[in-house]
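Dear colleague,

Following up on yesterday's call, I've attached the two folding results inline so they're easy to grep. Please treat them as preliminary; we haven't cross-checked anything against experimental data yet. The first protein's sequence and structure tokens come first.
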Amino acid sequence: MRRNILIIGGSYFAGRVFVEMLAKDMDNRITVVNRGNRPIGQQGVAEIVCDRHDYRLKEALPQLKWQAVIDFCAYTPLDVVQLMMAVPNEAMEHYIFISTASVYADTMNLPVKEDAPKVTAPQKELGVAADYGYNKWQAEQKVAEYCAKSRIPFTILRPAIIYGKYNYAPRESYFFDLIAKGKTIILPKNELALYQFVSVWDVAKIIGQCLGNESVYHQAFNLAAEELISYRRFIEVLQEIMNRTFSIDTLECKKINEQNIPLPFPLEQHLIYSGDLIRRILGFDYAPFIEEMKRTWECYKQKEGLSL
């Protein structure tokens, strides 16, 4: 039976990788809604150019029964409501909301599990990203409220730090750029800050396994591989996959902040989450960090036309 899959977003990063993966299965009838800034141009993928906030979205959507609606770009409760108003309740069999691990409040109870306390206000210390985690948490609550009222099965996914193909955020590419230019990499002297990552390919696979899967209905899940990665370990992995050494220097965290060195991860805060619940329910194994980072480096080289 052919599945009708509606994807909101899908031209950026995780959404794009997911669309590419899904399109390999001819049993999927894929419709992507985005603003058209980055056309996908994938065979077997129907693209609708429309802003999710446009009142004409409802008219633009095909009148189909959607086996799954995957929402990559809802950032506020209003975003959720507007989509729900555009898709009739009876036409949506499963709503998958892509949230973030940033919904959690600071805690020393690590790893952070799905029932950990959530942020209760914008995090002003994050500057321009102050509202992000708070708004996502508010959106999650709206998803649960609306879907319960409308009897729509939902699944919420909270990725940790995502890396990989099409990543527009200067995370791994921050280091790749320095390496490609032969510049010195500055690392914090404090080696205790630890992070957990999830590759964009694992995110896509997990979403795929969630589609219409009753075992994940009405639940929220962290997406985080088991490995704990520090700045130092991150660079060790890069040295190993590239088979070379880099020019490295270290600075106190205070000096890094004073010099506005844009390191992509927190200098002193752990970001450690348990991704075990979704792993056990799906029987899913996260790919090793070194393998997925090697894929990421190859994607970067291809994009930049490098022969390093």
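Below is the second protein, in the same order (sequence, then structure):
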Amino acid sequence: MKRGVTWTLMSLLLLTSVSGLVYWDYSSYLDSPVATGEAREINVVIPRGTTFSQVVKILKDKGLIVSPSWFKLYLIINEMAPTLKAGAYYFNTGMTPREIADMLSQGPRTPYVVLTIKEGFNIWQVAAAFESAGLADEEDVLDLLVDPELAAEAGIPQGPMPDNVISPVEGFIFPETYFIAPGQSVRSILLRMIRQSLNELKQVKKNNIAQYSVMLERVGLTDYEIVTLASLVERETPLEHEKKLVASVFLNRLAAQMRLETDPTLTYSRERRGAKPTVEDKKNEANPYNTYARAGLPPGPICNPGRDALAAAVATPRTGFLYFVAKQDGSSGHHFTTNYPDHERAVQQYLKKKK
């Protein structure tokens, strides 16, 4: 009996000692600086919509969190996980994990600029967004957006650049809300946007590898052509469920050597941007982006597509559709058809009735 009591006491003592050591390690971690020596400033941007786990990963990748498990535990115990705020932060390696967590819960202390690039923005709209945010003059931004050196520095996979491409980076300014910390140059901001776009394209291909392989066998589009196709899809429909159907129409027409005849390409120019396409625009053979007058894809993207449009261009389903027409009923939807007689009937139904 005494032996059993002794073992129980010893077990309790051991458990208490281990618990004490664990708690000491936990507390010591929370109250110790990130690094010893001279403190370094580290800029961290937490995008809107970032999850609790993603925030911890961002901090770990920046070298601010060496024990993600302890850091997560602290946030959970103190009910701070739901309070973490997006924004641009300036941490330094002399801070403790507890101080970093408190700052994330309170929000950024340093002012930052919010810059939103919407899906379907073209280079002129991007430049205008920079100016509206007070980051730079619109014309100065445009000078960079037409600079081939910026595209080369960012690593845009274009291959031989056609002479008639308006902007070598059009299509690769990823639509997102960005938090811009003070002092960042326009060039560095654009490079960040372009590299995010390249990462998004890489991820979309990885997530849809089977469909991507089929698309390559069928039409063999390069990455630059995929983004070009995605830009057409982005401009044709805002509806997520329609994007892949629109992409299928374009791929079917390419495979059948039919012209794409997509209206948004008719007014892709500094002079005509935002204008309603006209009969004269359709006949303008001097416009290299005119898919009514010229076969194949335009020489480059006509806007900056988002994730759904990129996925539509990479993982395009097989359909028999060759035509579509806007329904003009306020839904932003389209009617898809497989042959010209049915398409003409749809045009009569949805467009000519409205005149």
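For the second protein, one point worth flagging: Residues 117-321 form one domain.

Best wishes,
A.L.
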